[in-house]
Write a structure and sequence with these properties.
Blueprint lengths: L17 H27 L1 H8 L4 H26 L3 H31 L8 H33 L6 H28 L1
Helix pairs in contact: 1-2, 1-5, 1-6, 3-4, 3-6, 4-5, 5-6
């Protein structure tokens, strides 16, 4: 089977196999349920949630959103160039994807530092309990995604003939899940309350 052919009757289609897609749906349901719970609690204590949200840095949240959307676009380009057998461009856009993830983590780390410095930790109030749990859980997913992308980059650099389309597409699916989760988190935490 060549790099471009995908056996659609195979368990590895959709990209990453059915287990990856089950994981993605479970993660989206988990984050979605937590965000719904946050909104329910927010309706019970609207003043506290609003006052707490004002302590967040919406500029950093917005830049992080742009960084992840851009990195998701670069990931799609990486997959497309891989399908076209342009491994040099595929590798370049994979690196740019990882750069977007690293930028997100650096800015999130700065934001966490700001919160800890002024005592807005996980136990400060209900809003910040949700803030820390949701964003830290997302950061863990992003770190896992970066590790996966590093392995893909290693495969592209080490032995370009053994790079596998299904693996590249599976890593892209996981990365896009991280993007989508952030697109759910950002408006609820940074904008609604």
């Amino acid at each position: 089977m060549s790099m471009q052919q995908v056996n659609k009757k195979n368990i590895y289609y959709p990209p990453g196999g059915i287990l990856l897609w089950i994981l993605i749906f479970l993660e989206l349901i988990t984050f979605g349920a937590a965000l719904v719970a946050m909104m329910v609690y927010g309706k019970q204590e609207p003043e506290m949630f609003h006052a707490s949200r004002l302590h967040l840095n919406t500029t950093i949240g917005t830049i992080n959103t742009i960084a992840l959307i851009t990195s998701g676009f670069f990931m799609a380009l990486s997959v497309q160039y891989f399908k076209e057998k342009n491994l040099k461009k595929s590798s370049l856009f994979l690196k740019l994807t990882m750069l977007g993830g690293v930028l997100f983590l650096a800015l999130k780390g700065f934001e966490y530092y700001e919160k800890i410095e002024v005592g807005l930790t996980i136990g400060y109030n209900t809003f910040f309990t949700f803030y820390w749990l949701l964003t830290l859980f997302h950061v863990i997913h992003l770190l896992v995604g970066l590790v996966i992308l590093l392995f893909m980059q290693h495969d592209l650099n080490k032995n370009k003939t053994n790079a596998n389309l299904e693996d590249i597409e599976a890593s892209a699916a996981f990365w896009h899940m991280c993007d989508l989760i952030w697109l759910l988190i950002f408006p609820v935490i940074y904008l609604i309350f």
